[in-house]
Amino acid sequence: MRLISRRTRFIQAAASVAVVALAAAGCGESSTGSKPSEKESGKYTGKGIGLAYDIGGKGDQSFNDAAYAGFEKADKEFGIGGRDVEPQDGESDADKVQRLTQLAQSGYNPVIGVGYIYAPAVKEVAAKFPDTTFGIIDDETVVAKNVADMVFHEEQASYLAGVAAAKASKKGHIGFIGGVDIPLIHKFEAGYIQGAKSVDPAIKIESQYLTETPQEGGFSSPDKGKAGASGQIEAGADVIYHAAGLSGQGVISEAAGKKVWAIGVDSDQYAQTSLAAYKDYILGSALKNVGGAVYDLAKSVHEGKPLSGVVRGSLSNDGVGFADTNPKYKAMTDVVDAVNKAKKDIVDGKITVNTK
């Protein structure tokens, strides 16, 4: 199944919903949308979508906010409502198990863990609630009839970011900042380096991971992102791509302050309100349609035909892409043409993008 039908859905704006406290212990802050409705399919009997956020939580203007946009779109279209729950600092796998269990016990369906860190919890809780559909984003290791593993070809979008960076760089010197040194983020780096070197084999590339583990704040510390970007800019990089979640806000603010290009990730960060002060220096963003994945899973459950197994987004099905909303980017026709050609070549199978 296609994760989404039109590219424009990547940049769909999020509407606000009421914020209420989740009384259950260990679950953090939560939001509730519309009341559940069976008006369209007549088959949906759940309480709504249960969405459990990754490190950084809602408001990261990136990964988690992309998931929330899908939550909101499903609520608006189907009127099913739901609850979205924030993570806690320093929480354990047991805390995640408790969070997902409470959502499932309360009748939310589907229940979605936003991020690979939920894999052990999804595996455990899904086995206890076989009639509830679970989703996990960025992990494909949980195999069960009632689990959808929603994953992406991040390396393909990152290849386009690398092409854009190399074409836009005036110094032949660019940078990459990953939030945490893990295989998932290695895919972003590998695609970015390959794309950049396809333009300029001699290009100089700074590469850095902010932390070794998520618990150290690599995905949730803008100050770490700012410091990393500062070092790369001082070394000579004039375009920096981040795959660092909330920490990426620090990368973007530092790049804008030093008047060099930043490339965002997951969401169209040029269009994010909280980053508006820096948007003139956001060249584009490597998109991962997390919102489309959340929406499609909710839609499948609402229609009584729940998705399960691996559901992978790619350039060919608009599950990943590159945002081109910055007018300054659109005016750089040589960059735009190079990115468009690279996208076509990947979709046509002429280019196979590295994942390591």
TrEMBL record:
**Every ABC transporter substrate-binding protein PnrA-like domain range:** 56-341
Major place of residence: membrane
Domain of life, per the record?
Answer: Bacteria
Membrane topology, record value: Lipid-anchor
Which Gene3D superfamilies does the UniProt record give?
A: 3.40.50.2300
Q: Which residues form the signal peptide?
A: 1-23
Task: Quote the subcellular location field of this record.
Answer: Cell membrane
Key word Nucleotide-binding present in the record?
Answer: no
Keyword Transferase in record = no
Q: Record's Gene Ontology CC terms?
A: plasma membrane
Alphabetical keyword list = Cell membrane, Lipoprotein, Membrane, Signal
User: Which Pfam families does the record associate with it?
Assistant: Bmp
SUPFAM superfamilies attached to this UniProt entry: Periplasmic binding protein-like I
Family note: Belongs to the BMP lipoprotein family.
Q: What is this protein called?
A: BMP family ABC transporter substrate-binding protein
Species annotation: Streptomyces phaeoluteigriseus
